[in-house]
Amino acid sequence: MPDIGERVQNVRLLRMWTQARLAKEAGISPTTVSGIETGKIGRPHFGTFGKLARALGVAPEELLDSREPLKQQGPVPLSLGWARETGEGEFESGLERASLESLDSLSCGLDVEQGRLQRLYGEFPEGSEQGLFIKRQIREVAGRSGSVKASAMVRRNQVEAKRTDEPGRDTESSKQNRNLDRRDKTP
Predict the structure, then answer these.
(1) pLDDT band at 2 (very low <50, low <70, confident <90, very high)
(2) Confidence of residue 179 (pLDDT cuts 50, 70, 90)
(3) For 93-116, what is the mean pLDDT?
(4) Is residue 183 part of a domain?
(5) How many percent of the chain have pLDDT more than 70?
(6) 8 Å CB contact between 63 and 52
(7) Residue 171: helix, strand or coil by DSSP?
C-alpha cells in the first residue's frame, strides 16, 4: 500500500506539476513537498496536509488512503483525484451512491480539468509523446465526465419523480380526480 508521500507524488504527477509548482499552489516550501514525497517527513502537520489536499483538488482522505473508515462512514466523497484514480467498477458504484450535489460538483471539476488538459495539449507539437499522453488523459476525463453527467441526469429524474409522487402534491391530475369524486357524491 503506498504511503502518504507516494500518494501526494502520484496526484501531483497526474496534474503534471513539479514539486515547486505544488509548493507554490499550497503555500508551503518546496523542501517540505520533497520531504513528504521522499518519506523524510512521514507524518506531515495537519495544516500542511490540508494545504496539499486543497492545492491538489482532492479530499484529504484520498491522500491518507483511509478508504476502509470512509466506507464505514458512508459514500466516498467525490473528487477529481478519486475520479481519475479509481477503477471502472468502483467509479460507477461511487456514482450510484453519490448525492446530486456531489455529482454536479464532480462534473464541474471534470469539465475544468478537461479544459486545462486541452490547453496543455496545445502547448506540445502534434504527434509528440507528451501530446499523445495528454490526449489519452483528455479521453479518460471526457469519458468519466460523460458518465457523471448521465448519473446526474438520472438522479435529477429520480428526485423529480419523487416530488411529483408526494402525497398532497397539487398536480393537475389530482385536481381532476377530486372534481370527479365531488360530482359522484352530489345527489
Answers:
(1) low
(2) low
(3) 85
(4) no
(5) 80
(6) yes
(7) coil
Nearest to 42 by CA among 87, 75, 2: 2
Contacts of 119 (CB under 8 A, 6+ apart): none
Residue 21, domain extent:
1-74
Report the pLDDT averaged over residues 67-86.
56
Helices (H), the chain: 4-14, 19-26, 30-38, 46-56, 60-64, 67-73, 80-85, 88-97, 100-121, 129-165, 172-185
Instruction: Report how far residue 77's alpha carbon sits from residue 139's, in angstroms, rounded to the nearest whole number.
Output: 23
Does residue 187 lie within any of the structural domains?
no
Q: How many residues does the chain have?
A: 187
What pTM was computed for the model?
Answer: 0.51
Q: How far apart are CA 36 and CA 3, in angstroms?
A: 10
Q: Residue 162 region, left (φ>0) first, then alpha (ψ -120 to 50), else beta?
A: alpha
Of 32, 52, 74, the last residue of a domain is 74
Grid cell, residue 153, equals: 441526469
Cα–Cα dist 179/68, whole Å: 56
Residue 104 domain-assigned? yes
Residue 5 belongs to some domain of the structure: yes
Grid-cell match 462534473, residue found: 107
- 132-168 per-position pLDDT tens digit: 888 998 999 899 999 999 999 998 898 888 888 766 5
Domain containing residue 51: CATH number: 1.10.260.40
